[in-house]
Write a structure and sequence with these properties.
Its main location: membrane. This protein is α+β, with helices and mostly antiparallel strands and 441 residues long. 29% of the residues lie in helices and 31% in strands. The protein contains twelve helices and 21 strands.
């Protein structure tokens, strides 16, 4: 019997030692697990003493917890990993003081580094006054790495983490970064936690590990360029009239309600057209645009979408096209129109359609292929095309920075192309207007 094998590990070893021919060193495994348990206890105790709560967010570990066969996580699993990742949640206005925790880690044999960088900017007034804050902690002991990603609360709405730039200063294996790799920021929704047993050690993990893992797979965040927004407002002034502020308040309400409706149907959407331009150019809403524009992949179309919007107080303004061709929905809400453009993909790229209601003329708006990233607009977590500049230039040309108040939807966009006509016999189906524009009030 090995001198250092502890009782809880005996059952664990029995699961892994299947025959003498496999030549497992039971003593070495048990001793390594004991060391791992001591190390993890040290880590959790050190951070807990400083009021810093750690949650296990390591993707491989959470996948192990989610598995039902073979059974989930144990200390040997973690000790066999090169890197194990935890998270802590912090307040952006008062970033955590990590000095004592890092000193304590060093005292128990860790090499430690803290990665700092600019925090997320949420206001054009702070575009040039963004102080560095702690973003990531990396620590190493006997070849085992700890990574703590700091998740900052944004408006109580979502959690943001910064990029892990410079993570290799201690020799950290950058290709094993799960959060902040490639200089990328990320966002997550708030999540509940639960206790989980790691052999005889209690740790906290996301309550719904499968949902958490799915979200982390699509969590890339791009910040709005508030330096550009400041330049725009310095050049063209910010409209702070009562009418403009009222419109912005209504846009905020419409985006929030749209998010509720579409997320309840599991339909992802993004800011499109003028609403996307407003975010990209001025980190705000274009006050003279008078509507809200969002995009949805046609593959995510849900037949209950109209009823769901109506149930939230919207009224159906118009339906153009068919689900398989140039589909577009418009709703009214408190005097502001919401346009939902459905996007298609073919050999020529990505596109959405439009229909001229007096003639049946069809239009096609072509875009370069794009992926979606998260961003923030007026405190709301929303999606935009990751390569937003290419998307904007396709729709508005290279003069997008200059405000244009006269805009013809089927002639002004440089990516607009005629795309045939709807046969007049089909107009009753493909051109449905329920309220004239003049009554949208």
């Amino acid at each position: 019997m090995c001198k250092h094998i502890i009782r809880d590990n005996e059952m664990y070893l029995a699961r892994f030692i299947t025959s003498e021919s496999e030549n497992y060193d039971a003593c070495a495994i048990a001793e390594k697990d004991e060391v791992s348990q001591i190390v993890l206890r040290d880590i959790l105790a050190i951070f807990s003493q400083q009021g810093i709560r750690l949650v296990l967010v390591d993707k491989l570990a959470l996948e192990a917890i989610s598995r039902k066969n073979p059974p989930g996580l144990n200390l040997h699993f973690l000790s066999s990993q090169v890197v194990t990742t935890f998270a802590t949640i912090a307040n952006l206005k008062s970033p955590p003081d990590l000095e004592n925790s890092l000193s304590d880690l060093q005292e128990v044999g860790f090499r430690v580094d803290i990665l700092t960088g600019p925090g997320i900017i949420l206001d054009v007034r702070h575009a040039h006054a963004n102080a560095n804050i702690p973003l990531h902690i990396v620590a190493e002991r006997t070849g085992w790495w700890l990574h703590v990603v700091i998740l900052y609360d944004i408006h109580g709405s979502f959690l943001w983490h910064g990029p892990a730039t410079g993570v290799t200063t201690l020799g950290f294996p950058e290709d094993m970064l799960q959060y902040g790799s490639g200089g990328r920021e990320g966002v997550l929704d708030w999540f509940d936690v639960r206790s989980s047993k790691l052999d005889d050690l209690e740790i906290e993990v996301p309550a719904n590990t499968s949902e958490f893992l799915a979200e982390t797979a699509n969590s890339t965040f791009i910040s709005c360029n508030y330096t550009r927004a400041k330049e725009f407002f310095d050049t063209y002034n910010d409209d702070t009239s009562g009418e403009a502020l009222y419109f912005k308040a209504k846009v905020l309400q419409i985006i929030r309600l749209s998010k509720l409706v579409l997320e309840s149907l599991e339909v992802p959407f993004w800011l499109s057209s003028g609403t996307c331009l407003g975010w990209f150019r001025q980190c705000d809403v274009i006050p003279y645009s008078k509507d809200v524009d969002i995009g949805v992949w046609i593959k995510h179309y849900h037949p209950g979408i109209i009823d769901a919007f109506v149930a939230k107080g919207f009224w159906l303004h118009s339906i153009f096209g068919r689900v398989n061709d140039s589909y577009e929905l418009s709703f009214g809400y408190s005097g502001v129109k919401l346009d939902i453009f459905f996007f298609y993909e073919d050999s020529r790229g990505m596109w959405n359609g439009g229909t001229e209601f007096t003639s049946g003329q069809k239009y096609r708006y072509d875009f370069p292929k794009f992926q979606l990233c998260w961003t923030e607009l007026m405190g709301i977590k929303v999606r935009v095309p990751c390569d937003t500049l290419s998307y904007i230039e396709a729709n508005y040309g290279d003069q997008w920075f200059e405000p244009i108040k006269e805009w013809d939807w089927n002639k002004s966009p440089p990516n607009a192309r005629t795309n045939g006509y709807w046969p007049e016999l089909e107009w009753r189906e493909v051109i449905q207007i329920f309220y004239p524009e003049a009554e949208d009030s």
